[in-house]
Structures are given as C-alpha cells and as structure tokens.
Amino acid sequence: MNERGEGNKSLLWIILVAVVVFLLLLVTGVIDFSSEGELEAPEVEVEGGALPDIDADVADVDVGTDEVTVEVPEVDVDAADAEAEDDD
C-alpha cells in the first residue's frame, strides 16, 4: 500500500478518536453547554429592489409527426416448450 493511503487511514483514526473523546467528555459532564435567555432572531425590513433584465435567445424547435410502417417479425412460440422451460 502506498504512503498516501496509510496517511489517510491515520487521519481517519485520529478524527474517530477525537470524536469519541469529545462524546465521552460530553456524556460525563466535563463539557457542559448552557445558555441564558431565549434565542430571538433580529427583525429585518426589506424595501425596494429590482429584478435584473434578462434576454434569452433560445433555439426554434419544430416538432412534427410522420406516419411510418414498421415490419414486425412473426414469432412462433410453442406452449409445450415454454412450460417445459418454466419447470426447470
């Protein structure tokens, strides 16, 4: 295996250990997140503004129908052969 692959594995192990340690500290109460007061979003007023002018030149596509005759091959199916294959 090349050195880069081993380095990626080492980095993943370090991240995994860090996450496990963080979770252990959080569960045991060593790390405690607390807040005071209520979360309140600021009031925002938006006035005015304008949409940009957009000019789009698209292709002209003509869609039509044509009547076409298609030859369909005849298929001869023997029902006894089909039942014998289903039993296998």
UniProtKB/TrEMBL annotation:
The chain crosses the membrane at residues 12-31. Keywords: Membrane, Transmembrane, Transmembrane helix. This is Uncharacterized protein. It comes from Sphingomicrobium clamense.
